[in-house]
Design a protein that fits this description.
Layout: H1 10-13, E1 48-54, H2 67-82, E2 91-95, H3 101-114, E3 120-126, E4 129-131, E5 147-150, E6 173-175, H4 176-183, E7 190-196, H5 217-224, E8 228-232, H6 244-256, E9 264-266, H7 267-281, E10 288-291, E11 298-301, E12 310-312, E13 316-318, E14 323-328, E15 337-342, E16 347-349, E17 359-363, E18 369-379, E19 391-396, E20 402-406, E21 411-414, E22 420-425, E23 431-432, E24 434-441, E25 445-452, E26 459-467, E27 476-480, E28 484-485, E29 492-498, E30 504-508, E31 519-522, E32 530-532, E33 538-541
Parallel strand pairs: 1-2, 1-3, 3-7, 7-8, 13-19
Antiparallel strand pairs: 4-5, 5-6, 8-10, 9-11, 12-14, 14-17, 15-16, 15-18, 18-19, 20-33, 21-30, 22-29, 22-31, 23-28, 24-27, 24-30, 24-33, 25-26, 25-29, 31-32
Helix pairs in contact: 2-6, 6-7
């Protein structure tokens, strides 16, 4: 989630009224299309309310998309539901294209309307953050700049003439003053707010929206100091990397942060658990806490998730053949475990097994190709463990042979019209019928693939294909029907380059994983090549 300082042109800001509706915010003040939009009106014993907001995708600037934000909010939602404090009707999730300024404001309204004086509220916000070159009333910023969070339309649909950085849309952002104003309308016993964004430390301002007005000064100060715990991923002048802070906070809430061993995790415990890990691993991130809640603000009960499962079974085989895979995981509390398996072509959920018991499951693939098999364990209380490192399997039609294969994933190298990539290989057959490449695409691109007899030699065969983008930057194993007559035992090269600018990457190992070839890249369209101590991910079929 690393972002740059967003400079909003002053000529635009002069006409900006913080809560205005703009042409970019076409939603009207009607019911929003969101998850969990109706809270229970019955007294069901739950006094915990949550508003969880993750933007993650941006209307006009796909380069700013951050899939990790969407994964984090889902993980937080599932983590809360494991605890008896929480139920679905008391949690509102606003994410992706629904995370517009108006919908976020209405989410705060929902929270203020439903939360009573004896209740506890949790607010989670993750998106791009940046300072803006204007301090709106109450003009409470020592540096003369408010902080802002980008909503779904947080960036303008045209490029910045002064920089490669996108321009912020003044009608698609929410300032720290506005957030403080909305917080002051929530009359709850305790409020925990987590902000994971660049410059989020600026949201610790402990002044109300009314600061600067003599009659309301004391009221505003009292409201702002009312039983709040505010956690931010960085200081006001720092950038936040990825969703590491969110991930650590969530891990802490699962139970790992229960430092006093009372069976509950407070906002404070989760913060210090995350902060210590961040400080140990990041030089330029310093999480911040503003704590005016008396005692500890408990958010979850301890329910530790099962361990990351191991999986064993065939990595190479034939289509329409059923193969047995063995799974095993351990639950720290001895709870029973079920497994969620993503086979690459379908998703399956098993029945429950005892902790540490080997589960045997069968699966067959109908279509030839390479699949990433992932599995995670879920205990009987709903606590979800982490997904395992993918087991990558390749299944061939009976008339095809899997020849050369390198599937160890670790890095990814960018490719475009001037940055060319190549991987050498030595076939054991005299012809190949197709190849597969592991690619990541975030902006649709055409890629051209060639088989050469040398890096700068003859093109034996070539093909091209349009690669479609995925919003989550998922690794895609793409098949290319490229037929070539080769000489078994001789070295050949897979060379690829794409159209236009950045938007595509070829996945590689993080070490020299393939004994029969090397990986190369060229910065000048193949005129000069440099080798790297990694290998590209590919499969050839004979």
């Amino acid at each position: 989630m690393k972002t740059r300082n967003m400079i909003i042109p002053l000529i635009i800001l002069v006409f900006f009224i913080p809560s205005a509706i703009s042409p970019f915010e076409t939603e009207k003040f009607t019911e929003m299309k969101m998850e969990n939009t109706t809270a229970s009106n019955e007294n069901d014993g739950s006094h915990y309310w949550a508003l969880l907001v993750a933007v993650g995708v941006y209307a006009y600037t796909p380069d700013m998309d951050r899939p990790s934000m969407l994964r984090a909010v889902d993980d937080l939602y599932n983590t809360l539901l494991v605890s008896p404090f929480w139920n679905k009707s008391h949690i509102k999730v606003i994410k992706g294209e629904n995370a517009t300024v108006i919908n976020i404001f209405k989410g705060f309204e929902w929270l203020a309307k439903n939360a009573k004086e004896d209740d506890i509220c949790l607010i989670y916000l993750t998106t791009h953050g940046f300072p803006i070159i204007f301090d709106f009333p109450p003009r409470d910023e020592a540096d003369g700049m408010d902080e802002a969070l980008a909503a779904y339309r947080g960036f303008l649909p045209f490029s910045n003439p002064f920089s490669w950085e996108p321009l912020a849309n003044p009608f698609g952002i929410i300032t720290d003053d506005e957030i403080n104003f909305m917080l002051n309308r929530i009359h709850a016993k305790g409020i925990a707010m987590i902000v994971d964004s660049c410059h989020s430390g600026g949201f610790n301002d402990n002044w109300s929206y009314a600061k600067g007005y003599d009659m309301a000064y004391e009221i505003g100060k009292d409201l702002a100091a009312r039983n709040r715990v505010i956690l931010t991923s960085v200081r006001e002048d720092e950038v936040s990397y990825g969703s590491f802070f969110s991930d650590l906070i969530i891990d802490g809430l699962k139970g790992y942060a229960d430092s006093n061993k009372d069976g509950f995790v407070s906002a404070e415990e989760a913060f210090y658990y995350a902060r210590d890990a961040i400080l140990d691993n990041f030089r330029d991130m310093h999480p911040q806490i503003f704590d005016d809640y008396p005692g500890e603000l408990d958010l979850t009960s301890v329910e530790l998730p099962p361990s990351i499962p191991s999986i064993e079974g065939n990595e190479i085989g034939n289509t329409n053949v059923s193969y047995v895979y063995k799974l095993i995981s351990y639950d720290p509390e001895g709870d029973r475990i079920k497994y969620e398996i993503d086979w690459g072509d379908s998703i399956e959920e098993t029945s429950f097994y005892n902790s540490g018991e080997i589960a045997e499951v069968k699966h067959s693939w109908k279509k030839e190709g390479t699949y990433e098999v992932r599995v995670r364990a879920i205990d009987e209380h709903g606590a979800c463990g982490e997904w395992n490192e993918s087991l990558i399997v390749t299944m061939a039609y009976p008339n095809h042979k899997i020849d050369q294969r390198q599937v160890n994933e670790g890095y990814a190298y960018l490719v475009n019209d001037t940055r060319w990539l190549a991987q050498s290989f030595i076939p054991s057959v005299d012809s190949i019928k197709k190849i597969e490449l592991a690619l990541i695409c975030w902006d649709s691109r055409e890629i051209e693939v060639e088989i050469r007899d040398a890096l700068d030699g003859n093109v034996v065969a070539k093909t091209s294909k349009q690669i479609e983008a995925t919003s989550d930057w998922k690794v895609q194993w793409i098949s290319f029907g490229i037929k070539a007559n080769l000489t078994a035992g001789k070295e050949y090269y897979i060379v690829c380059h794409s159209s236009g600018g950045w938007g595509l990457a070829w996945v590689t190992s993080s070490y020299d994983a393939y004994d029969h070839g090397k990986f190369y890249h060229s910065r000048n369209s193949g005129s000069n090549w440099e080798s790297r101590g990694v290998d590209a991910c590919f499969v050839t079929y004979g």
